[in-house]
Amino acid sequence: MLNGKRILLGVTGSIAAYKAVELTRELVKRGAEVQVVMTQAAIRFVTPLTFETLSRQPVLLDMFTLAYGSQIGHIEATARADLFVVAPATAHTIARLAHGLADDFLSNIYLASRCPVLVAPAMDSDMYQHAVVQENLARLRERGVHIVGPASGELASGLIGPGRLVEPEEILEAIERLLEPSGDLAGEVVLVTAGPTREPLDPVRYLSNRSSGKMGYAIAEAAGQRGGRVILISGPTALFAPREAEVIRVETAQEMHDAVLAKLDAATVVIKAAAVADYRPKRAATRKLKKDETVPEVTLESTPDILAEVGRRKGRRILVGFAAETEDLVVNARKKLQRKNLDLMVANDISQPGAGFDADTNVVKILDAQGGVEELPLQAKRSVADRILDRVVELLKRRD
Ligand code: CTP
Q: Which end of the chain has fewer CB within 10 Å, C or N?
């Protein structure tokens, strides 16, 4: 089950660190490739040598030595991982992760991670129950971090209560659950568009918009993890594409249009999260426009509406669109849903804090073709992605 899976295991300074030794042994036994990263406090409880012997890999300890002295920087370490597990996670490390501190290797890895993250807290029960620890855990959960435990029982302090690191067996089960795609999109081909488009004015200038691509990439990642085959057609973004996705990079609305139509036959679900430019310069200059020439007048023309085109050729596909609005959100989104022949419309009030372009979170409403409106609270784009896919899965089941 864990064969070939790459697991980054973060070990922090808790008396329960010895259980991470057992966890490493079990992971390796099940075929996983384990890369351990330890905090300075952790090495006071268990020696790196123990982990190195079991994992057969050098333990990541010192950000500076490793970042410069070898090939393994924190970025490389995370880029290769399928899952980042922090077990045991002390109150201190939970706080560092919740607040985005980057003061050692482990916390840098967390910030750079694109894979799912699983945290197994371990601390004294009074500490665990402190409001600030609870707040930090809630904050992590809100951002899509998975938490396992703690268990209740006798603690190192002699107290009895919640705070014990769960047993390695339970952490293994949580790992397997996260790595085994839930499979509810198995057999489906999910075509996702993401990012902005660029419409050239001349060889160096273009018209574009503020889309970062984060929402679309989150959907592509979630769809892959749920067993779907993913085709990601992306405008220019600074994001890493999910490892398993087939990625087609485009620049203009026309290129995105052509790529979508070329792949449409294969797709059973189409999710159009891209912010496609509605207009483009009618003529792009073939040479750079110069300042000493007359101020250019730019005439715009419409780009093809990709989603409307896909709506006309919909067949049995499930079609999901996005609407970014600054006013009359639901009314405008519903009009688009009908006009473009969609099953679902994800409506995004980009004037709200925590929503829209370039944020890591989003606040959306999901409209369906039957007139329903589901309002989702502010949450990480990655969890919004899963909520959208839950609705897609429901529609797929109903369609069959
Ligand atoms: N879209 C598209 N092709 C375009 C423009 C938009 O496929 N040329 C898609 C987007 O990917 C999105 C949806 O249409 O899923 C809605 O985009 P939006 O710009 O909000 O809607 P428009 O129909 O362009 O309406 P308006 O700009 O007037 O709000």
A: C
Told to judge if 332 belongs to the known catalytic residues of this protein, a careful annotator would answer: no
**pLDDT score recorded for residue 355:** 77
Q: Residues with Cβ < 8 Å from 165, sequence gap 6 or more?
A: 14, 16, 19, 87, 88, 120, 121, 122, 149, 150, 151
Question: H or E stretch including 394?
Answer: helix 381-399
Helix spans in the chain (H): 17-29, 48-55, 63-69, 74-79, 91-99, 105-112, 125-129, 131-142, 168-179, 214-225, 253-263, 306-312, 329-339, 381-399
| β-strand pairing of 117-121 with 83-89 | parallel
Q: In this structure, are residues 3 and 30 in contact, taking their beta carbons and an 8 Å threshold?
A: yes
Six token digits for residue 332: 């405008």
Show the ligand 1 pocket: residues with CB < 6 angstroms.
253, 272, 274, 276, 278, 303, 305-307, 321-324, 336
Mutation to probe ligand 1, out of 210, 276, 319, 346 (largest number of atoms < 8 A from CB): 276
Q: Is the model's pLDDT at 165 over the cut of 50? A: yes
From CA 282, how far away is CA 297, in angstroms rounded? 11
The burial of 55, by beta-carbon neighbours within 10 Å (0-12 exposed, 13-18 middle, 19 or more buried), is given as: buried
**What token pair was written down for 158?**
């002699």
CA of 233 to the centre of ligand 1 (A): 16
Decide if 337 contacts 369 (C-beta within 8 A): yes
The domains located in the chain, with CATH, are 6-179 (3.40.50.1950), 189-399 (3.40.50.10300)
For residues 2-6, average pLDDT: 92
Q: Is it true that the peptide bond before 88 is cis, omega within 30 degrees of 0?
A: yes
Atom of ligand 1 nearest to the CA of 307: 7
- DSSP code of 250? -
231: amino acid identity, one letter? I
- pTM over 0.70? The answer is no
282-331 per-position pLDDT tens digit: 999 999 999 888 898 999 999 999 999 999 999 999 999 999 998 999 99
Helix and strand element counts for the chain (H, E):
14, 21
